[in-house]
Design goal:
With 190 residues, the chain is an alpha+beta fold. It is built from 5 helices and 5 strands; from the N terminus they run αβααββαββα.
Length: 190
């Protein structure tokens, strides 16, 4: 019986699911918004809310709790050429801003007067190209970009081909309709 068992499995084993939540939480704290599927966002939201609530009170105990939940204090990188990131001679990242420090000193103070509701989920109304799942943006409240959320990503050749086919089909249908009109007009003149 499943008494007291709750939560989404998301088609993953426990360790994979926990690792996915950790990675998504770190990405959300780094970029302040991420594009993902709706079930993943809904399962990530409680974890993020609890981490921010713990970070509002800056104690060594809360820092250790957050580090344990995130699987270690990792270096925060917004991009490959981010400022403040140190690399060794092999190109491996060895220094930079730590994610827990960023959470406790920059993100949590924004919400000191707010009791919960630190993140929001916005449905985008578009589907992922590979499997067709609905996409959404999960973002931290108060960090909205200009123009609202968007699902920008890598250039997709599949979508470009589909757009070309659609344009070609419309042009062909428009050309066929234009060819039928003069023929109908000629038949009406005689």
């Amino acid at each position: 019986m499943k008494h007291g068992v709750y939560g989404r499995k998301l088609g993953r084993h426990t360790n994979h699911r926990i690792a996915m939540w950790r990675n998504m939480a770190i990405a959300l704290f780094t970029h302040e918004q991420i594009v993902t599927s709706i079930p993943k966002a809904k399962s990530l939201k409680p974890l993020v809310e609890k981490l921010i609530s713990a970070a509002k009170e800056d104690t060594i105990h809360n820092r250790r709790r957050v580090i344990a939940k995130l699987g270690g204090d990792q270096i925060m990188m917004k991009s490959e050429d981010a400022e403040g990131v140190e690399r060794n001679k092999y190109g491996e990242v060895v220094g930079g801003t730590k994610i827990v420090k960023h959470l406790f000193e920059e993100i949590a103070p924004r919400y000191k007067d707010r009791n919960g509701g630190y993140s929001r989920i916005i449905k985008l109304g578009i589907n992922r190209l590979g499997d067709g799942t609905d996409l959404c943006v999960i973002q931290l409240v108060g960090s909205e970009p200009e123009g609202g959320p968007s699902a920008k990503g890598k250039f997709s050749r599949r979508r470009n081909k589909a757009d070309k086919r659609t344009a070609f089909a419309k042009a062909r249908a428009g050309g066929a309709a234009a060819a039928e009109k003069p023929a109908a007009e000629e038949a009406g003149d005689s």
